[in-house]
Amino acid sequence: MNKNENILIIGVAGGTGSGKTTLASHIADAFGDRVAVITHDSYYRAQNDKTYEERCLQNYDHPDAFETELLCAHLEQLCQGQAVDIPVYDYTIHNRSNRTQRVEPRAVIVLEGILLFSDELLRSMMDLKIFVDTDADERILRRIVRDTKERGRSLESVITQYLTTVKPMHEAFVEPYKRFADIIVPGGGDNPAALDMIITRVKKQLGDV
């Protein structure tokens, strides 16, 4: 990638319910309109050829569920100073919506997602890789609350999905790639000491200090 050296790409990965979104939000808050946040979930593949029942049975925790090649292409465009229109995913129907979201080039691009580090090309595009490391019991409890309240899922479906795909895929494609992280944040996204360290490092790379 012909990367613009003035653009900093940060990857925030970790298991489901680990606090990735919280940490990414804290970073965005610290740098305001200099930051664009992009979630890997936006790039779940479109499944217009499948019925809702068929979509419910898909494995959404395997790298193949994502159109990561499109994310990489969008990052290339952003680094070349071009705006992109990213997909908007609808969790309630397990499919992309008909809408897109315009993202303008920014000095800092924060990527957030479970499987960010499992793709070698995407990983190579990141200047700073952060892994949010949270206890498994806490993560599943957070996922149950989120999916039942925000995504219209039943408790039974959340538990079934966790046991059949989320947990085994975490062990195969999330936990092993923690070794690529530059920074490991223990205990979730609300870790003031880790956040201060990350913000200081980003400021240095931006030339703010």
How would you characterize this protein structure?
The structure is a single chain. The protein contains seven helices and seven strands, in the order βαβααβββαβααβα. It has 209 residues and is α/β, with parallel strands linked by helices. The protein has a single domain (8-192), classed as P-loop containing nucleotide triphosphate hydrolases (Rossmann fold), CATH 3.40.50.300. Strands 2-5-1-6-7 form a five-stranded parallel beta sheet, with helices on one face. The chain has a two-stranded antiparallel ribbon with strand order 3-4. A hairpin with a 4-residue loop joins β3 and β4.
Give the SSE layout.
Blueprint: E1 8-14, H1 20-31, E2 35-39, H2 52-56, H3 68-79, E3 84-90, E4 95-103, E5 108-112, H4 120-124, E6 128-133, H5 136-150, H6 155-174, E7 183-186, H7 192-206
Parallel strand pairs: 1-5, 1-6, 2-5, 6-7
Antiparallel strand pairs: 3-4
Helix pairs in contact: 5-6
Keywords summarizing the entry:
209 residues; alpha/beta; Rossmann fold; two-stranded antiparallel sheet; 7 helices; globular
CATH superfamily grouping: P-loop containing nucleotide triphosphate hydrolases
Shape: globular
Radius of gyration: 17 Å
Query: Unreliable stretches, pLDDT < 50, 5 or more residues?
Result: none
Secondary structure tally: strands: 7
CATH topology, by name, is: Rossmann fold
How many separate structural domains? 1
CATH class: Alpha Beta
Helices, by number, come to 7
N-to-C CA distance: 27 Å
**Share in helix:** 40-55%
Question: Could you give a short account of the major beta sheet?
Answer: 5 strands, parallel
Q: In the CATH classification, which architecture applies?
A: 3-Layer(aba) Sandwich
Work out the strand percent.
15-25%
